[in-house]
Amino acid sequence: MNKSMLVGAVLGAVGVTAGGAVATYNLVGNNGPEYAEVLAVQPISETVKTPREVCNDVAVTRQRPVKDQHQIAGTVLGAVAGGLLGNQVGGGSGKKIATVAGAVGGGYAGNKVQERMQEGDTYTTTETRCKTVTDTSERLVGYDVKYQLDGKVSQVRMDHDPGRQIPVTKEGQLILSQQGGGIEPQGGGAGVQQ
Fold first, then answer.
1. In angstroms, rounded to a whole number, what is the distance separating the alpha carbons of residues 143 and 113?
2. Which helix (H) or strand (E) element contains residue 136?
3. Per-residue tens of pLDDT for the chain, all 194 residues
4. 152-158: strand order across its sheet
5. N or C, which terminus of the chain has less Cβ within 10 Å?
6. Burial class of residue 157 (count of CB atoms within 10 Å of its CB; 0-12, 13-18, 19+)
7. How far is CA 153 from the centre of its chain?
C-alpha cells in the first residue's frame, strides 16, 4: 500500500470519528441553553442603624447649700434694725406701734434680703453629660436579577451582579454562586417566577 494512501485513510477515519463525536454531543449532551440572559439587575440595600454614646463636658452653675433655709438670721437682724428705727419715731403709745411696725417691716425686709443673697451664692463645676446618637449607613445585601431562560422571564436574588448571563446546568438550573461550584435550587429549576 502506498504511504500517502495510508495517511489519507487514517486522516479520513479520524475526521469521521471526530464528526460523529461532535454530532453525538450536540444531540445527547446539550439538552438546553448554557446561559440565561440577564434582563435587569437591581442592587438591594438595607439601612443599618448603629447606636453609640456621645459624651461632652459642660459647665454647670449650682447653688451652694443653704445653711439657713428659713432665713431666720436675716429676719431677726431686720426685725431688730426695724424696731430700733421705729422706736426713734413718735412718743408714748405711738412709739410702741412704730417700734412693732418697724420690727415687722424690718423682719420681712431682712428675710427677703437674705433669700436673695442665698440665691446668688453659686459656684460653677464641670460635669460629663452623655446621650445616645444613632449612626445610619447603607449595606448591600444582594441583587434582584430579572432573567430570561427558554422564553420564560423570571427573577432571582443573587449575592453578586452576574453581568449579562447566568450559567445554567444541564438540568436547567441556574448556577448562582460566583465560583460556579454550587447550585442553589430554585422553584421549578429556573428561578423564582414573577
1. 76
2. strand 122-149
3. 566 666 556 566 655 565 555 455 444 445 556 899 999 999 999 999 999 999 999 998 887 777 766 667 767 776 677 667 767 776 777 777 777 777 777 777 777 777 777 777 778 889 999 999 999 999 999 999 999 998 899 999 999 999 999 999 888 888 887 654 333 333 334 444 33
4. 165-167, 35-63, 122-149, 152-158, 192-193
5. N
6. middle
7. 36
Alpha helices in 29-147 (DSSP H): 72-87, 93-119
What counts of helices (H) and strands (E) characterise the chain? Answer: 3, 5
Phi-psi region of 122 (alpha: psi -120 to 50; beta: other; left: phi over 0): beta
Question: What is the gyration radius of the CA atoms in the chain, in angstroms?
Answer: 49
Structure-block grid coordinates of residue 72: 431666720
CA distance 115 to 71: 6
User: Is residue 184 packed enough to be buried (19+ CB in 10 Å), middle (13-18) or exposed (0-12)?
Assistant: middle
pTM above 0.70, yes or no: no
Distances (CA, A) of 150 to 32, 169, 182: 8, 13, 22
Retrieve residue 16's grid coordinates.
469521521
